[in-house]
Amino acid sequence: MMDIANYLKSQSQLVEQQLDQLIPVSHGPYQHLFEAARYALLGSGKRLRPILTLATNQMLGGSSSAALIPACTLELIHTYSMIHDDLPCMDDDDYRRGKLTVHRKYSEGHAVLTGDFLLTYAFEVLSTAPHLTPEKKIKLISTLARQSGGEGMIGGQVMDLSFEGKKISLDSLRLLHRNKTAALLTAAVEFGGIIADATDAQLNCLRHFGENIGLAFQVIDDILDVTSSQTKHGRSIASDVLNEKSTYVSLMGLEQAQACALNFYQQALQALKPLPFDTSLLINISDFILKRQH
Predict the structure, then answer these.
(1) pTM
(2) What does the alpha-carbon distance between residue 159 and residue 168 come to, in Å, rounded to a whole number?
(3) What is the pLDDT of residues 28-63, one digit of tens each?
(4) What is the phi/psi pair of residue 96, to 5°?
(5) Are 197 and 179 in contact (CB under 8 A)?
C-alpha cells in the first residue's frame, strides 16, 4: 500500500498543477466566478477519476502528455456535480472536503453558476486539448457527455431525488449508483483506453471494471457516511440519513454492505483478466478504494 500511496500522491500533484493552470487567477469583471471555481477545485480531493485515466493510459502504453489534460476534465465535471449536489435544493450540505461548500462560502446563485462554468468548460478544454487527433477528441467528448448526462450521472441524481423518503429495492439502488457515481469512474477508464488506442473488446473490459469499481466506491461511501460522517460532511449525521435516502447500509446493514463492496471489487478485478497487459496498477488502485477511510 505504501507504493500505491506514493503513486497516488505523485499523480494527484500532477493533476493539481494542471488544474491550477486550466483555471488561473483572474482579475477581470467576473473574477469571482473563477475565484469560486478555484475554491471548489483546488487544494483537496483524491483526484481518483483523473488518476484512473492516467493509470489506464499508462497500463496500455499510451502517451502521458496526451492524457493529462483530458484526465483533468473529469475532475472539472466531478467538482461541478459536487457543487450542485451540496445545494439546499439537493443535499443541503454545509461542508465539502473539510471546508465550507460553495453556496455557504459565496451564495446559492454563485454556486449554480460556478458549477455551470465547470461543466461547460470541461468540453471546451477537451475540444482544444493538445496531442489528440480529431477522432479521439470526438470519442472523448461523446463519452464524457454520455456518462455525465441523462443516461449517466445526471440521470442518477434525478433518481436520487425521486427516492428521498422511500425504501427502494437493491436493484433500484444499484441502478441509481451505477449512474450517479459509477458512470464518471467508468468514463475515467474509458478515457485512458481511448487515448491509448484500446480495441473495442479492451474498452468493454474497462467499462465493466469501471462500473464495478464505481459501485464498490459508492458502497464504501455509504459505509463511511455512517462511520466517519463528521470527517466527511462536518456533522455527525450524513445528509443521506437526514434526507431519508436508502443506502446500502440502511437496506443491508453494515456487515452485509461491507460484503457487497467486496463483491463489486472482485467483479472489477475479474473484468481485467482478459486484458493482455500488466493490470497491477489498476488492481492496487482498486485495493485503495476498498480500504479507504475517508
Answers:
(1) 0.93
(2) 11
(3) 899 999 999 999 999 888 999 999 999 999 999 999
(4) -145, 130
(5) no
